[in-house]
Amino acid sequence: MGGISIWQLLIIAVIVVLLFGTKKLRGIGGDLGSAVKGFKKAMSEEEAITKDAKESNDADFEKKNISEQKTAEQSTEKQKDKEQV
Fold this sequence. Notes:
This protein has helices spanning about 5-20, 20-55, 65-85. It is an all-alpha fold.
């Protein structure tokens, strides 16, 4: 009972056509369609960029395991200690 019937929708459509005209409505529909198409294209490009970014490294760092990282940190600490003396 609370919904809009088909007859009410037809009356609203006729009023909209009378107010704006078919030419203007066609132009609005074309503009809306091109906007949606542009949005979809931008979203697919963004997905491709994020996919490429995930696959490639952000920087050119070499992968090291934890033991290599600890030895590298210890060597840099030793060099700092030598520089301070």
